[in-house]
Write a structure and sequence with these properties.
Elements lengths: L5 H18 L1 E5 L9 H10 L4 E4 L6 H5 L5 E6 L4 H6 L1 H13 L10 E7 L13 H17 L7 E3 L7 E2 L9 E2 L4 H13 L4 E4 L2 H7 L5 H4 L8 E3 L2 E3 L2 H15 L7 E6 L11 H17 L13 E4 L54 E4 L8 H11 L18 H13 L13 E4 L18 H28 L1
Bound molecules: 2-acetamido-2-deoxy-beta-D-glucopyranose (9 copies).
Length: 485
Amino acid sequence: MSLNLCPIILFFFFFILTISRVRAIGINWGNTASHPLPPPKVVELLKSNNITKVKLFDADPLVLPALSGSNIGVTVGIPNSMLRSFNSSKKAAESWVHDNVTRYFSNGGSGVRIEYVAVGDEPFLQRYGEQFHPFVIGAATNIQAALIKANLEGKVRVVVPCSFDAFLSESNLPSKGHFRSDLNKTMIQLLTFLSKHGSPFFVTISPFVTIHQNKNISLAFSLFKETAHPHNDSHRTYKNSFDLSYDTLVNALSTVGFPKIDIVVAQIGWPTDGATNATPSIAETFVKGLINHLHSKLGTPLRPRDPPIETYIFSLLDEDQRSITTGNFERHWGVFTFDGQAKYQVDFGQGSKNLVNAQNVEYLPSKWCVVNNNRDLSNASARASEACYVADCTALSPGGSCFNISWPGNISYAFNSYYQQHDQRTDSCDFGGLGLITTVDPSVGNCRFSVELHTSQSDSLHRACYFQWTTLLTTILVCLLRFTL
Ligand SMILES: *[C@@H]1O[C@H](CO)[C@@H](O)[C@H](O)[C@H]1NC(C)=O
Ligand SMILES: *[C@@H]1O[C@H](CO)[C@@H](O)[C@H](O)[C@H]1NC(C)=O
Ligand SMILES: *[C@@H]1O[C@H](CO)[C@@H](O)[C@H](O)[C@H]1NC(C)=O
Ligand SMILES: *[C@@H]1O[C@H](CO)[C@@H](O)[C@H](O)[C@H]1NC(C)=O
Ligand SMILES: *[C@@H]1O[C@H](CO)[C@@H](O)[C@H](O)[C@H]1NC(C)=O
Ligand SMILES: *[C@@H]1O[C@H](CO)[C@@H](O)[C@H](O)[C@H]1NC(C)=O
Ligand SMILES: *[C@@H]1O[C@H](CO)[C@@H](O)[C@H](O)[C@H]1NC(C)=O
Ligand SMILES: *[C@@H]1O[C@H](CO)[C@@H](O)[C@H](O)[C@H]1NC(C)=O
Ligand SMILES: *[C@@H]1O[C@H](CO)[C@@H](O)[C@H](O)[C@H]1NC(C)=O
């Protein structure tokens, strides 16, 4: 090879590197829903919107087969509840890797392109206390050893997703960023483990929660608006909340001796309901601003021209059974509604085309449950509160899309949510005689009274078992026939 070709080859090498950096925008796919959209439809949704990476929270046996052959890069998750057993048992870690990774893995081709195993789901969240801290490193080490044994070292990397509250800066200045003091020791062990195995640091950044909790950050600053008042940190100028949080983390990493470790933003998004500032149009501004910022490759003041190696938007779909201990917005992070309809427009790689919605979605019949106005409604509010204990009433909260529907419209909303979650069973619209089933859509303005999907979680599980049973029976029958013939 002639020497003067080298610069050109190098140029193309870096060109390709930069391109792949820009493209690394994925999405989180959670399944904490009463009626999850069937996995094959979700995979179609990902493919038709050119989404090339997806992060899961478990290793759902209905989800992974659906991703086979899609060439989508996948992160599978280990729930926090399994960490204890994987810390104490190499065998348990090996079975998990065998059953949930090795069985599906392929590097392209017909299997699942698994890139990461996420050990725990934000095990360091402050509200969990220290219950998972003693198991995380041991579990990660045993999973890593199991991957090596399965010949997957370097192909599948072990990561530990860290919550936004694992690092902080009391003064809001990134230069004063540090890890939460109860995490000092664990963080050093974790970072030592990650760098030894070439794994990046997975972290959640949440400009929404920052503004929700800290009134001193302006909405414009959170939304990447040019007009936002910048925050200065000695000679560094911060123009948006994302850079501020990111550099707070970079500084925390530097403080414990890991200034260069690669960062993956594992969860970042903006909810669309259930709180003030949680609307589709604000969410659109945020996600568009974020994606433009990542595409600009500007990086942050502490890591100029070095943006996160990958970024996973949170989240793909709304999930009506997510915990709401941190706020009613928690069930509304989706770029798409629970049934796969785009709430707003963003560019995931499909260019200027609109997002494609989920196709051929199967719903329950067009029926709703509302309050019967001809009855004595003196106990209706109590009934609605009971319904809301299991149903999803988050849209009724202040700032929510149904906050303004007046009484007894809000009672109907609660009744309907309960009725849909119970697959429109007649007895789930009773409410002591106060419920009434109707075929007239009670939705008003932005307040949507939903009709649930045809497939419930229990449904799909039953179907999977039924399928296995019928396959088994068929096999036995065929064998018997062969034997007798
Ligand atoms: C997006 O994916 C579709 C197929 O699903 C493909 O035809 C199209 O070229 C892709 N667009 C881009 C910009 O990669
Ligand atoms: C984690 O596993 C190690 C090795 O088996 C064990 O010594 C340790 O006690 C475990 N930690 C906890 C907190 O159980
Ligand atoms: C993964 O593997 C373990 C161990 O074999 C098994 O108990 C578990 O059910 C599997 N599936 C998931 C979703 O973790
Ligand atoms: C953790 O680190 C911080 C900052 O470096 C320090 O102030 C704090 O005392 C440490 N906490 C523990 C428990 O070591
Ligand atoms: C609020 O932020 C501004 C910069 O935008 C800063 O000057 C001010 O000190 C902050 N106030 C508090 C109470 O943190
Ligand atoms: C922040 O820094 C910029 C540029 O260095 C400067 O123009 C601006 O006045 C500073 N703002 C504050 C509030 O100190
Ligand atoms: C309302 O509830 C109370 C207590 O459960 C009950 O005694 C009363 O009869 C109810 N009123 C109506 C109108 O159903
Ligand atoms: C609710 O109604 C008030 C007053 O009518 C209006 O100012 C506000 O924008 C409405 N909020 C929503 C979320 O529709
Ligand atoms: C419905 O609205 C009434 C009156 O504003 C209120 O007292 C009640 O708690 C609301 N119920 C629900 C389920 O939001």
